[in-house]
Amino acid sequence: MHLIIFIWGFTGILGKLILLDAVQIVWYRVIIAFLALGIYFAITKQSIKTKSFSSFLQISLIGLFVAIHWLTFYHSIQLSTASLGILCLSTTTLHVTWMEPLLMKKKINLLEVVLSLVVVLGIYITSSGFNESEYKALFYGLISALFAALFSVFNTKIVEKESAGIITFYEMLSASVGISIFLIIIGRFNFSLFEISSSDFYWLLFLGIVCTSFAFLATVIVLKQLGAFTVSLSINLEPIYTLILAIFILNENTLLSENFYIGAVIIILAVVINGVIKGLVRRKKKRKPNAA
Question: pTM of the entire structure?
Answer without folding.
Answer: 0.86
